[in-house]
Amino acid sequence: MALSLSSPCGCPSDEDEEMAVFESTAAEHGGLSRPRLPEISVISPGLDPRPTTAEPKLAVKSGLVRQGSGEENTERVKVYLRIRPLTETERERGEEQGCVAVQDEGTLLLKAPKESQNMRTAERGITQSMHKFSFSKIFGPETTQQQFYESTMKTMVKDVLQGENRLLYTYGVTNSGKTYTIQGSGRETGLLPRALASLFRKLQGRLYGAMDLKPVMYQDVRQLEPGEVRVEEIRRNSLLKEDENLTSRRVGTTTNGDSGFGGLSSTSNIASQLEDTDSVCLEPDSLSHSGGDDLEEGVQFSIWVSFYEIYNEFLYDLLDASPSLQPRKRVTLRLSDDKQGNPYVKDLTWIQVRSAEEAWKILRAGRRNQSFASTHLNQNSSRSHSIFSIRVLHIRPEADSGQAMHISELTVCDLAGSERCKEQRNGERMKEANNINTSLLTLGRCIAALRHNQNNKSRPPQVVPFRDSKLTRVLQGFFCGRGTSSMVVNINPCASIYDETLQALKFSAIATQLVHGPSTKTRVAYILSLLREPTGNGNEGTVLEEEEDESDVEDGDITMLNTEALLQAIDVLKREVQRQREEKEILEANVREQVVSEMMEVITGMQDGFSETLEAERALIEERYEDKITNLQKHLKKFYSQELKERDQEIEALSAALEKNKEAGSGPTSEPQGDAPRRSQRLTAQTELCKLRAELDQCRAELLTKTQELIKLKMQLEVPGSTGTLTGAADRKLEEGQRNLRQLRLDLQRLGLDLQSGERACCRNTGGERLRQALNAADETLVKQDQILVELQNGLILVKADLRRKADTLAQTQATRPQLPPSGFSAPTTPGSCKKRGCGAAASCDAENRPPQKRPFFQSLFPTRTPTRKYNTCPVEEPNVTPYSRILRSRQRSPPPSPVTTPRTLRGKY
Ligand SMILES: Nc1ncnc2c1ncn2[C@@H]1O[C@H](COP(=O)(O)OP(=O)(O)OP(=O)(O)O)[C@@H](O)[C@H]1O
Q1: Which run of H or E residues covers position 805?
Q2: How confident is the model at residue 839 (pLDDT cuts 50, 70, 90)?
Q3: pLDDT tens, 647-682?
Q4: Could you tell which of 89, 180, 488 is best to mutate to test the pocket of ligand 1, judged by most ligand atoms within 8 Å of the CB?
Q5: 3-class SS letters over 130-178
Q6: Where does ATP bind (predicted)?
Q7: Does 268 contact ligand 1 (Cβ within 6 A)?
Q8: Which ligand 1 atom lies nearest to the CA of residue 416?
């Protein structure tokens, strides 16, 4: 994937947001209503009042600015800016357009030149054309190598001799002066040779001569066997000899571009530049303070160096023996982790050096193996990240093997320059540029993640992607408390690479916000404080009090503790872990309980809510159905009153018709006589008319009776309260009675027919026995029906009596409240009913005294029969009398016979 130069700053974390804050993307432009941008975007990361260079003495001594015991390091990472001078050629090309201006010691102002991309976007109102950056210190083009060394690396060398670990790395666009800054050119030696010279001057007379102690892995030391020592000596001598041979052959060597590995020049101008230096030529004043006054008394020092590069994400040992003999078979190195998970370069060559000269020669030998190539920007461009490490072994002579050993390290990393991939015309260069930008991008992401974690301690930490590139993996320790790091940003003031320079500065702006990670010493101090604290079980950590003085322990390293103390520390830490785990479990249990109780509350609330809703709905439904019932009752009442009215009208119509007929019937008397057939016809018609009239009279009488009964019923229906209920019950009973009577009537008719047929049979003297049986059965049925009738009559009498009582009560109530208008009763339309109501009590008494069959109500139940059922009374001739009814009458005149005797009587008769 081809990455553009801007990618190192394009980290996916929150620095994008901050960049957006730094560099607003809205502006009023071309009449569009955009908010106006400030003229300058202030990319100023170091404006908060955190200590930076305060208390330099303390910071130099320990590498930390301690804010009380147990507090973490808050010293910002140092980010220096170095501006290289323009060359003559560049000036002639018109590259000097004043786009880089130093405002003060720590502030830089960038102004976009006309042709730059930034200016184009600024003209469109998307970004600003001016940017302000802050740095720990800015070094202009006039700064000499010595001045730069004094301000940056000098203190680092001192720190390393004090036992600290330090990293310095250069970052910038290609051809911006990174290699120049680190290694120098000609007599202008860079930081590294100066640091080496300074180191050995300080260690004069304190060097450990033997080669039997060697740094291995992450920061361990191994005691070498004599045979191994010999191998080490041979390796060292061969490297030094090789350098001497090459130096002697140097005269007349041309810069043959592609004679090195993979088409890269290994013996290029850069090597010759260093060779020109010949020896470590340092100004006398730079090393004026050469004495090792700060060094611990009695400690001897052994210096070992290594030099490797990361090229296309592969690690190559630049001090590998005789690489020139097998130029195309470079062995790649692997990264490994030690038991504590610290990364280290496996099988890396470490060479012991005893002087600055030797170190210089080793560096020079390594430079020959480094990957350089000519690019469009730099003829001798570093195509790899080169890492030169100096390990200082602090050896206490009186101590046993390795026990009092301490290691400190100074690492100088010359990063490959960031550049635009698209501008590389060579495929190999393009691939290199990709890899360079990828690793730089990862470095940017790591720095951004570290910065995020430091600034957002309350939030979960972001994973720092150290493992995403080899570069960040090998430098990881310096960002995680193993030591401190400093960054040198190199820029080229050429207008043509303004956009790249801007991106590099934005990248560095993130780094300026970093503070150093908590030192491993802080962790040691924490462990030691645990050892000193009571452990809770009465076993107090006393080992340290016996072993170490407190001040020594505070500044000491974990390797200073003996095995017993370390074991005790492990025990204490285990107990601490256990305690914290238990605390967390209790906390979790509490949280769970709280959650459960809250959930229960919620559930109870929901239950209550549902019950209320249910009640409300039930009440609503009840109300609705009550309304429906009321409506139904109302409609029924209306319907039945309508029915009654219609029937009244029919009766009236019939009466009127009858009257008419009557009038019409009286007319024929005046007709002439003499016409016999017509008279007989008239007579027949008159007979029929009489018959009809009789029938009509009978109907009228019946209708009248029914009307009265209906009116009475209506009145009873209108009686409020329990009377209505009783009336309903009475109605039901009446209906039942009517049904029974209807059935009875049918049975009687059937029996009458049977009797007729029996009479006929008797006359013919056939089937006598059968007839007798039939008569017996008929007699039994009659007895039963009589009983039923009597029961029904009694029930009806009771119901009527009850109704009358209620009516009387109501009438009394009405009488006691004469002033109130009659509301529950409508005025009777017939005088009969009025009379009845006016003397209700008397009427009811009268009705009660009457025999049941005489009552009009009962009459209505038997419309086809005459109410003549009387015991011991005279017979009355009635029309339509059936044989059975005659028999029944004859039986009813005498007291009711027993079911046994009646058949005999009947048998006697027939
Ligand atoms: N401060 C300076 N004073 C004088 N010359 C300088 C300075 N900085 C850089 N130069 C010159 O600029 C040129 C490029 O420098 P250098 O090779 O160090 O760039 P670089 O950033 O390492 O490039 P690359 O990333 O491609 O390796 C060299 O010729 C060097 O001598």
Answers
A1: helix 768-816
A2: very low
A3: 999 999 999 999 998 888 765 554 444 555 556 777
A4: 180
A5: EEEEECCEEECCCCCHHHHHHHHCHHHHHHHHCCCEEEEEEEEECCCCH
A6: 172-179
A7: no
A8: 25
d(CA 807, CA 805): 5
d(C-alpha 135, C-alpha 107), whole Å: 6
Both tokens of residue 651? 């009766």
Q: What is the pLDDT of residue 727?
A: 58
User: What is the domain partition of the chain in residue ranges?
Assistant: 204-417, 531-598, 712-817+834-910
- 396: pLDDT strictly greater than 90: no
Q: Which residue has the tokens 């605390």?
A: 583
Terminal Cα-to-Cα distance of the chain (whole angstroms):
133
Say which range, 149-153, 483-487, 733-737, has the weakest mean pLDDT: 733-737
State the pLDDT at residue 597: 92
* Residue 375 · residue 432 · CB < 8 Å: no
Q: Is 727 in the pocket of ligand 1 (CB under 6 A)?
A: no
pLDDT at 588: 92
Q: Distance, CA 558 to ligand 1 centroid (Å)?
A: 42
204-417, CATH topology level: Kinesin (3.40.850)
Backbone angles phi, psi at 395, to 5 degrees: -115, 125
Atom of ligand 1 nearest to the CA of 145: 1
Question: What tokens were used for 376?
Answer: 């469009």
Phi, psi of 100 (to 5 degrees): -120, 120
678-730 residue pLDDT tens: 567 777 877 888 888 888 888 888 888 888 888 887 776 665 544 455 556 66
Please tell me the residue having the least CA distance from ligand 1 atom 8.
177
Helix axes 356-369, 191-202, angle to 10 degrees: 150
Rounded CA gap, 890 and 909, in Å? 12
Q: What are the two backbone dihedrals, phi and then psi, of residue 733, each rounded to the nearest 5 degrees?
A: -65, -40
Is 134 a pocket residue for ligand 1 (Cβ < 6 Å)?
Answer: no
Beta strands in 188-288 (DSSP E): 188-189, 213-216, 220-223
Closest atom, ligand 1, to C-alpha of 382: 27
* Mean pLDDT, residues 522-532 taken together: 61
The letter for the amino acid at 493 is P
> Does an H or E element contain 785, and which?
helix 768-816
DSSP states along 289-318: --S-TTSPTT-EEEEEEEEEEEETTEEEET
Name the token pair of 796.
């009806």
Q: Is the pLDDT of residue 163 over 60?
A: yes
Q: Is 85 in the pocket of ligand 1 (CB under 6 A)?
A: yes
The pairs formed by 518-523 with CB atoms below 8 angstroms and a separation of 24 or more are: 518/72, 518/73, 518/481, 519/63, 519/64, 519/73, 519/481, 520/481, 520/482, 520/557, 520/558, 521/64, 521/554, 521/555, 521/556, 521/557, 522/64, 522/72, 522/73, 522/481, 523/481, 523/558
pLDDT tens, residue by residue, 553-569: 444 455 566 777 778 87
Distance, CA of 758 to CA of 768 (rounded, Å): 9
Q: How far apart are CA 346 and CA 335, in angstroms?
A: 6
Q: Residue for token digits 């170095």?
A: 82
Structure tokens at 12: 């996916």
